[in-house]
Amino acid sequence: MKKKITVIALTAVFSLSLGTSVFAQEVPSQDATSESINLQNIPTREGGEITTLALWNVVTNQGYQGLSYGAWVDGVSGPGPGTLTLSKTVSVSNTYSGTLTAKVDDITAAVGFSISATNSTTASYSIKVPNGKKYKIRYRPVYQMYKATQYTYSTDVGSSVLLSTDVIYPKKYAYLEYDYVEIK
């Protein structure tokens, strides 16, 4: 039995006052000769005919969660006695952890910053190295971490069904942190 699918295209963006954003996403129309849409996770009406289908996301900002730290990056190393100085331009980016199921723009609207923004900054740090020692300066990015919940819904003739709930942790670059270690 073939399933007939008629799709309405929705393009809507709603911002609600509590940091909640609702997004509708266009779903391409399918005809009987094209590949079928995978209906495994999408509810169908009795009889197997879907008359209207829209997939949309609600992204809620759960707020600031604290600081998150990136991996250490080696800067410069050198022996003493003297001053060891790191001064270089580095690329820094906002990022996220978790499963991204909504569009990047949906997350941006909910948390107020782009999770894909990239900038450059200067890594700058100095340390006095004693005679007979060798030090290495390293640095890492520090992020302000937020929590957002992504809800994906399907709408079939006026009834909405929650398909999935996924958490993502958007991370906004804040500053570079520095450290030094002795090289043996």
UniProtKB/TrEMBL annotation:
Keywords: Signal. The keyword Signal applies. Residues 1-24 form the signal peptide. It comes from the Bacteria. This is NEAT domain-containing protein. It comes from Paenibacillus cucumis (ex Kampfer et al. 2016).
